[in-house]
Amino acid sequence: MKLKKQILLTLNSLPIVFSISCSINEKKLSDDKEINKTPSDKTKEENIDSKNTDSNSTPVSNLENTKKEEDNNLNPTIENPKNENENELHDSKEIKEELFNFPTIIEPENLSISHNGNIYNPKKIFDLDKFPKNIVLEDISTNKQIVSSYFNSEMKKVYSTILGANEFFDSIPKWFNFYDQNYQQLAKKDLYKKIPDMHVWFKNNDQYTKLVKKNIIDYVQDNELILDNNILSIEKNISDFILSSFKNRTLSLYALVKNNFSSSILEIKVNIEELLNNKIQEWKNSNLNFLEYKISLSDDNKIKFEFRLKNGLFSFDHNEINSKYVFEKYNTLFDIMYEVEKDNDKHISFSNKKYLKNDLHAKLTTNEILYSSENKELIANNGRRILSEENNKMFNEIRKRVFTIGGGTSTMISKVKPSDENNYLYYFITNRHVSDILESRWNDHRVIKKVIIPDLDDSKIRNYDNDISLDVDKNWLTINFWQAINQNRRDGTLNNSNINLNNADISINIINIKPIIDKAKLENNLKILNYFENWKNLKPLKLSKKIKYLDSGNLVNFYLSSFPTDPYAGFTGKRYREHIVNRIEDIIMNDQPQGFEKYGYFKSFKMQDDLSLNSRYDLISVGSGSLVFDENMDMIGLFMQNIGDNEYGFGLFSSFDYDYFGYENDKNLNSFKKFLQNKVNSEPEKFDLIEF
User: Fold this and answer.
1) Residue 423 sits in the same domain as residue 313
2) 597 occurs within a structural domain
3) How confident is the model over 214-237, as pLDDT tens digits?
4) pTM (two decimals)
5) Residues sharing a CB contact under 8 Å with residue 110, sequence separation 6 or more, in sequence order
6) What DSSP letter does each residue of 504-525 carry, written as one string?
7) Same domain, 441 and 310
């Protein structure tokens, strides 16, 4: 039975329990490397980390000091500031950017014929519970043709099933069984794990040739369909494929097209050798009678696919399925087929950027490699907690604006009036259920009336050490300045059948940092002073363009920082944690416990601990409100709830139905932008219109 969702938001001696987000099993709180360590071992090791001067384990506490030397606003009368001799900053250190090389593919030494002579039914060879590796056939042209045809036909069944086409097949390969042990259909995230790298050997005397078919995967930023003047296009960087020693190369594209009650697979196959001889090709008919395509190859080896309709319009919006041809923006699938001599095979990537060794996210080549426990250097689960020694430029920037007050996690997103240099008011974002606690229960003795900034030393965060915290007054805050309540849909209407579909768990608040800066100067608290003084140097955040198009199974580069509670201290203290997301497991309408429906049912994505990899997020109570960033440091959504013991819910900032902020659509009369416009009109001396 699904456990009740709870969140413990504000903690001192006893928790305030707010029944919306986190119910938690203490076992789930260890990180990837610390599952079996005791609380004292963990604290001891992280305390050592925080004091170590090695470049990979420098404490985050001083990260705000990057601009210290050029900041002329610090009070020159401060003497003996705290921690002035502490280790240098994470982001002032050089982060080495050594290129990553995929590991060498190790071929078997001894190969012997598995089936003599001509084969006639490849299913008898390959259609097993697990796709067989290192099958060896005689190098006969008909054998190659039969196996190639089998590989292509079976993988089309796989792709059609994953993409959701309403096509029916006589059989699905056994190695792609899409039911679990209880005969329940597997989620898309589990189906991706079942895609094999297909290969077979052909022997000719002492020579071995390998026929390979495998899908190449990419993050959404490298797998985006672009719509311009009713022409759809997508580009892929196939340099690795072009420059390889592979022979008889084919690149295939698969995409789902929906219209009315029909959903079909667009399938395009490209002969690479022909493309190299003719880099700009003419429009051709596709396998779908209503659509044409065109292919070109640039001098830097980027292949471009263009699509046009014979009649009608393209769209990415599933609400328009009855009138347009709908594609999924980030769900186009690609695979390659080639032949290669023994010991010459290699991993390739279609990424537009070369992977670096210190990249936190997975280095992508194929789904099988991504999820294979045999490839330790490549493996990365759907997401994970980042350890203190893993330095990263993105988190260096996120730490400059993430903090906690009372309960939950908050992030500064913009100055309220950027045109006024003397204005010290800033917007910060968190969950409504977090800001409601601050507004209604500030006087509760269990609410920590301090602002706390990031530090990798758990004991400092847990004990609210003076150098990373400061007492604050509620008068310095404007709580619930704007909330996502009574939101109009993109067509301007309200959902009257269920009013909570018009709400979302998002609030924007204001903090006045002038009294914080003054108090920090008075108390010689240099870390707090530098942290808040540096806000004037930070640009407003932007909303990601990806949000409404995200779908289950998408590969992403997402980041978030949080202040979850410490279960080893009896849930009476906080910690600072950092997390990444590699793959969106599932897009859902979030669930709310009875009594808390007012926080809305809205588009969210869900993640889950991967216990098979011994990987846990360690993202729990008081992590609510943590802002999710994409690879451009644009805003995606907020972490808002734990679901049972090992699942995590993240609310998205927009959908095809709702635009909560109001920067894509002007029909939402209660959007943040509409609300802010009214404030600018009525109080122009206090507010500027911010373009998120």
Assistant:
1) no
2) yes
3) 999 999 999 999 999 999 999 999
4) 0.86
5) none
6) -S-EEEEEE-HHHHHHHHHTT-
7) no
